[in-house]
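TASK: fixed-backbone design
INPUT:
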């Protein structure tokens, strides 16, 4: 079973080097999806103490008596000083018991075979992944190397944008759930319905040793890769040592999570790729391995074609601005849909009245709760500012920011559709004598830190540099877990990267 064909191209992007390498040229075992040997991290000699320790550790990892944390996560170390070996193994959250152990056992064999004498290695199957090293890897978020895999079939719908819009929402939801879920599992699966009524199945998982924030950061990074790896494809995933996300249009996991699941491997991603090809992109930071030389000759044949493709890609959007407006257009909601979801903007669904108009609660057909800001015609916010808010907010994803799901423009109606945040805004809590009592110092501290994190993200960590300019208690929404989320970037001023001073021409603020 080697359904994978050769297709090698070399792409040079900003700094990382992307290899598109056929799985055949790597001579992988049939079901080992991919691996990395970290040549530069050092070698051990045959029959050394390190090797003995490694073998002992790996056989204990997959031994029937080892149950890990009970949720398919294994963490152990063996040996002393320079010969200490550390390993982490993780099964997909729905894979348990013997299937999980079998997968780990296969991984331990394959990885030592494929990376002979390498001190550090990482590899994964559909159902599990394994990682070992001579340094402690427990609790460290490591998002590199990242592996991109996709189903070569295109989305079979005229509304590809709609498909990916739904997909993005689904994977963001799942990432939030996976990061927040207790300490043991860090796993979430779910479905969404694409505009052509196709079901999209999604998955997000972190190694459970990660703290919530680290897991969230890792998944946000992986999500950002999805449009790059899997544009237009009906299945894809991004896998790195600390987390992974995946989507398919056929079910690839067992939703009941009941062990064991003998049939899961047949339905796993293979249904389409068995027939055809799976191509794997490996992002290698600055690894120039021996393989490069071998591959390079094959690449030469194809480089020309690749360059042409890159050029057309660059030319297509016509320039940064049109590209951004294009992506805003893809967030557009149908006015009728929103009107139905808010029960024709009924008084009962009204959440409040802000400077720019009223906010309503709504529920989409798929059961998702939303908050709709209906801008009053005389709000003073022009078309430009409206688009500005859409473009800015849609690009920003952080757990301490209210997420903009989309917008709606119809006639004089202008609506912004946000995720629904259950506990209303901070001023409702602070200035209400009874609710204020809920705000003990632990919660206050959490709100302060969360707000600061959101601001830090806006100021420094996001791709854009944003100054809120109207931050006040009524702009800080509180979710069910009392996490703060900053809202209302209408006043935000966009800074070009590396620009530290902006000429803010209007005086605004609180
Ligand atoms: C791991 O091995 C490499 C190469 O032998 C060595 O440079 C590094 O210090 C080792 N790391 C630890 C934590 O022992
Ligand atoms: C480890 O061995 C591999 C080949 O087995 C070699 O390519 C690599 O350079 C070696 N790494 C170090 C740090 O010696
Ligand atoms: C490693 O040990 C085995 C068995 O003890 C022996 O057969 C083999 O020759 C040794 N290999 C090296 C490289 O020392
Ligand atoms: C995981 O391994 C590390 C390193 O050995 C150890 O410090 C930590 O306590 C372990 N954690 C769990 C949950 O087993
Ligand atoms: C482990 O590998 C064997 C053959 O090498 C295969 O039959 C078996 O299905 C694999 N198990 C898992 C869980 O991948
Ligand atoms: C998918 O779409 C791209 C461009 O739209 C096209 O080049 C490619 O051949 C399509 N692939 C399949 C398998 O249909
Ligand atoms: C996939 C999974 O286990 N998700 C759970 C995360 O935790 C929330 C609440 O604790 C559950 O509702 C989800 O089912």
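OUTPUT:
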């Amino acid at each position: 079973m080697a359904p994978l064909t050769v297709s090698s191209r070399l792409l040079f992007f900003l700094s990382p080097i992307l290899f598109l390498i056929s799985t055949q040229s790597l001579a992988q075992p049939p079901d080992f999806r991919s691996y990395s040997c970290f040549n530069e991290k050092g070698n051990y000699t045959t029959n050394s103490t390190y090797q003995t320790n490694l073998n002992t550790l790996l056989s204990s990892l997959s031994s029937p008596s080892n149950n890990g944390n009970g949720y398919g996560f294994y963490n152990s170390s063996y040996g002393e000083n320079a010969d200490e070996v550390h390993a982490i193994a993780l099964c997909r959250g729905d894979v348990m018991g013997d299937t999980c152990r079998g997968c780990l056992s296969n991984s331990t064999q394959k990885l030592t075979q494929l990376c002979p004498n390498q001190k550090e290695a990482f590899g994964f199957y559909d159902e599990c992944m394994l990682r070992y090293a001579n340094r402690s890897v427990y609790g460290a978020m490591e998002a590199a190397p990242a592996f991109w895999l996709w189903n070569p079939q295109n989305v079979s719908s005229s509304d590809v944008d709609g498909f990916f819009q739904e997909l993005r929402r689904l994977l963001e939801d799942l990432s939030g759930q996976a990061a927040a879920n207790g300490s043991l599992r860090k796993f979430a699966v779910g479905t969404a319905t694409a505009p052509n009524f196709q079901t999209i199945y999604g998955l997000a998982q972190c190694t459970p040793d990660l703290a919530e924030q680290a897991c969230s950061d890792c998944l946000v990074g992986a999500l950002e890769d999805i449009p790059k790896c899997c544009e237009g494809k009906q299945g894809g995933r991004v896998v790195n040592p600390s987390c992974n996300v995946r989507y398919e249009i056929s079910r690839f996991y067992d939703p009941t999570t009941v062990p064991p699941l003998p049939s899961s491997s047949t339905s796993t991603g293979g249904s389409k790729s068995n027939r055809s090809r799976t191509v794997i992109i490996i992002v290698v930071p600055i690894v120039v391995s021996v393989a490069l030389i071998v591959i390079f000759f094959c690449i030469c044949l194809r480089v020309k074609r690749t360059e042409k493709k890159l050029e057309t890609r660059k030319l297509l959007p016509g320039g940064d601005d049109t590209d951004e407006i294009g992506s805003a257009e893809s967030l557009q909601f149908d006015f009728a849909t929103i009107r139905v979801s808010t029960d024709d903007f009924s008084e009962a669904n009204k959440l409040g009245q802000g400077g720019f108009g009223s906010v309503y609660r709504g529920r989409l057909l798929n059961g998702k709760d939303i908050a709709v800001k209906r801008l009053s015609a005389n709000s003073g916010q022009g078309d430009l500012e409206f688009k500005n808010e859409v473009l800015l907010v849609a690009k920003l994803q952080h757990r301490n920011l209210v997420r903009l799901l989309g917008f709606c423009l119809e006639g004089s109606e202008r609506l912004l559709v946000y995720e629904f945040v259950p506990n209303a805004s901070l001023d409702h809590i602070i200035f209400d004598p009874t609710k204020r009592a809920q705000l003990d110092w632990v919660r206050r501290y959490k709100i302060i830190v969360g707000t600061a994190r959101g601001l830090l993200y806006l100021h420094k960590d996001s791709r854009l540099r944003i100054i809120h300019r109207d931050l006040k208690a009524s702009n800080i929404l509180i979710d069910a877990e009392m996490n703060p989320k900053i809202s209302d970037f209408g006043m935000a001023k966009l800074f070009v990267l590396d620009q530290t001073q902006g000429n803010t021409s209007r005086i605004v603020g609180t």
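COMMENT: The domain at 27-133 is CATH 3.30.430.20 (Killer Toxin P4; Chain A).
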